[in-house]
Design a protein that fits this description.
The chain is an all-alpha fold. Helix content is 48%, strand content 0%. It has helices spanning 4-11, 15-24, 37-51, 56-72, 137-169. Helix 1 (4-11) packs across helix 2 and helix 4 packs antiparallel against helix 5 (137-169). The chain is globular.
């Protein structure tokens, strides 16, 4: 477990900044100031992406899409209040993981297949199926992959500039 102060020090950001990021991404703030390693990994990912010039609005759009996809796949039925963060920090099968939630989809991205219907929670049946109401995991996956691909393209372009800036900054040791 990490305190907000620990995470601020590890990420070289103020506690206020980290608290605001958590709020903007709708991550519950810990009442006891104890955050999981997954929360630290999520914040690290967001800060890395922001450092590489990926706009926060795009990241929040992707975050909402990833959470929607995970809800359609019933990942939220595991019972954890931070179910959308629990995979952050895991390193196995990186090509199968979503960018922000780091959830392992079980297939390499950018595939267009997904295993549906893995609901582990007992919930009341809805009057209409989610697909009839416009919720379709394949459609949401397509939106996630489109935005994921665009962000990866921006990262590839920015990497050249970051490498050059890093070489330039070494002069100031």
């Amino acid at each position: 477990m990490h305190t907000l102060g620990d995470m601020a020090k590890a990420l070289n950001r103020s506690q206020l900044y980290l608290r605001e990021v958590l709020k903007r991404f709708e991550v519950p703030l810990a009442k006891d100031d104890r955050y999981s390693a997954a929360t630290l990994a999520f914040l690290r990912t967001v800060i890395f992406l922001r450092t590489l010039n990926i706009g926060e609005e795009r990241l929040r759009d992707l975050w909402h899409l990833e959470k929607k996809l995970l809800q359609l796949l019933y990942v939220d039925s595991a019972g954890s209040p931070t179910w959308f963060l629990d995979a952050c920090g895991l390193t196995s099968h990186p090509r199968r993981r979503l960018l922000l939630s780091n959830f392992d989809l079980g297939f390499a991205l950018p595939a267009r297949a997904v295993q549906l219907g893995l609901n582990f929670a007992e919930v009341r049946a809805e009057l209409f199926a989610g697909k009839e109401m416009g919720e379709d995991a394949i459609r949401v996956l397509g939106e996630v992959l489109k935005l994921h691909h665009a962000i990866c393209g921006d990262l590839a372009a920015e990497r050249v500039m970051v490498t050059a800036a890093n070489r330039w900054a070494r002069r100031f040791k």
